[in-house]
Batch of 2 targets.
Target 1
Amino acid sequence: MKAPREQWSSRTGFVLATIGGAVGLGNLWRFSYVAGENGGAVFLFVYLVFVMLIGIPLMIAEMTIGRHAQGDAISAFEVHRKSSAWNMVGWTGVIAACLLLSYYAVIAGWALKYFVGAATGALWSAASADYGSYFRQFISDRAEPVAWQGVTLLMTMLVVAGGVRHGIERVNRLLIPFLAVIVVILASYALTLPGAGKGVRFLFAPDWAALREPKVYAAALGQAFFSLSVGMAFFVTYGSYMPRAFSLPASATIVAVGDTLFAIVAGLAIFPAVFALGGNPAAGPELAFVTLPQVFLKMPGGAAIGIVFFFLLATAALTSMVGLLEIPVAAMTHRRGARRWYATAIAGGCVFLAGVPSALSYGLFDHVRVGSYGVLDMIDFGVSNFLLPAVGIGTALYVGWRLERAFALQEADFGASRWGIGWLWLVRVIAPLMILVILAQSTGALWQAISFDEVKSEQKIEFK
Ligand code: PHE
């Protein structure tokens, strides 16, 4: 027998849970390093344009079918007919979520290890200030990264097994306001450091010449999908626990603004500190794990700041992992009638196993490479640059063209307003076209990379 379907307890609960899912490594770790590699302010500008023209419209589209279906990511694509070919889009979204979670847990594990290290003092003493080799030694170990990956996944499974209201919503209600305060305090502190102005300029004073570089667009689009959590059935799933009374456009806007503010304030915590203390903002994925600890070590009160920063990073990652794991769990409970704890155990176990090669990609599997991409890089590249945009296009076309226009507008809470027409055309034409152009361009870059056996060094993790 199916239990009655759970719902968020209130709009605040829904917004906090959804921001908790959206705010994660993407805001604190990925945003700052990708912005650092792509010119800072120009990247931010292009990113904001994509959030408005692609991100928010797609979020609304995902929530529209999710809430209508009151089911899972796959049944959301069966508005007209069961097992229609459109549900392939839903399936792809679920697979993308599982793949993303598989390596996300690895990086969350790194963050958790650094938090524990910072709190116990091991991080500050063991590294003797050479965090490059400290980090490399850790991620190339044959067991440690797997152990930390397992711990973060277990914590995630405990929350998800608790259910929508008592697990997911409760944890996010508790943590998200707290994390927002922490990130603001970190930024306020970083801004008082002498030389902080350079970091602020880096993030806000654009060098427009960089607009001519195609890689800026691809990076901004990938980041928009990753950070807003679009293209992996997340809003379809969280939207399915939404009561009719919440307005979708307002909810999507609040979540997008909250997510973007988090990334910008985190940038204001990171770049001023990096510039003030002579680090390299374009250090790549190592920014959080090598550059920042070095910066913390030189800062007055840096050890305490380090504890707080890595707590923030690990916790924000955890609330996102909860959102990601809920996607396959919702599909299994709704479609197969599985019990929640059982679905959580199976999905969590599979994701763990799928992530082991990523956890070992700098150790045991270091030799597995395409060009210079290791296992983790390859999965990240494939998911963020191809799967998420593809699911984005599929969702946009489904909502824009397959659903009847009046139905889509009404289900999205636009009714007959002008905003609705704008949204519809963004979803029908503009967003898919923009995604397609950028997708074609990254395919070209990939092709070149494979045929010349060199992948652009800006996009990869190179530790050798
Ligand atoms: N948006 C999250 C981040 O920025 C990642 C995520 C994607 C979380 C999808 C949940 C669902 O880290």
Note: The mean pLDDT is 86.
Target 2
Amino acid sequence: MSLKVYISGTLYDKDDAKISVYDHGFLYGDGVFEGMRSYGGRVFRLEPHLDRLWESAKAICLEIPMSRQQMTEAINQTLQANGIADGYIRLIVTRGAGTLGLDPNRTSDPQVVIITDHIALYPDELYEKGLKIVTASTIRNHSAALSPRIKSLNYLNNILAKIEGLQAGCIEALMLNTKGEVAECTGDNIFIVRDGVLYTPPIEAGILEGITRDAVIELARQSGREVREIPLTRHDIYIADECFLTGTAAEVVPVVEVDSRPIADGTPGPITRELVEKFRRLTRGD
Ligand code: PMP
């Protein structure tokens, strides 16, 4: 059975799920999206994901053509149609088809697309062994140019950094902001541990406000750990006791080497391992 894809009220077979080439989402990356996970048939942190989607849309003056309730129903309908209990959900709202100019006022019918599928971002062994990353020379978007808080369809900034990572044999890459501080990775937020305290760059460092990041901060604080959101430099990362990344697709994944410098002894640290497990328990509900 072919996967069904939701487009603006209708479920289509994957091969027939198409939108106009005049859609400004396609022409200009003019649109917003979310990546979510469903565990045991329940969407993890659905409300914060919808908040972020609506905030991203507001920031680009895009009116989402349905209510949050209708969006929730559409997501559940698509998951059910595909019999997916544990999977990944890609929710996209495009500006809609228009003329060939930039003017968003000359578009009509923003399209809502929901893809539900299975995802395995990183091989299992990386959760045991940890991953190696490098710093990309591509700087994260300046917040005043295009806020990294907007989860827009234009991901070229991150893709350019991802290419640099891949060219260096790494599947993730670290991005700095225009001040040279650590921002985030191309599709994940970054944390370090030093003397038992967790550190992660603040929102003002120019990052996406990751929902997994929030969940991990909560989990760490619940177990009595201190978490500080303060600006970090690459030096802080190099001398950290532990390092890990967070993201919807990646969940919590250890980092054991940054720019050819092993993090501590080059193996995933105990607090990272604990958080990998705690996050699994939180999402799997056991
Ligand atoms: N930063 C960027 C640039 C991302 O694309 C993502 C993935 N959405 C993240 C961080 C992690 O965010 P979340 O935990 O909400 O998936």
Note: The chain has a mean pLDDT of 97.
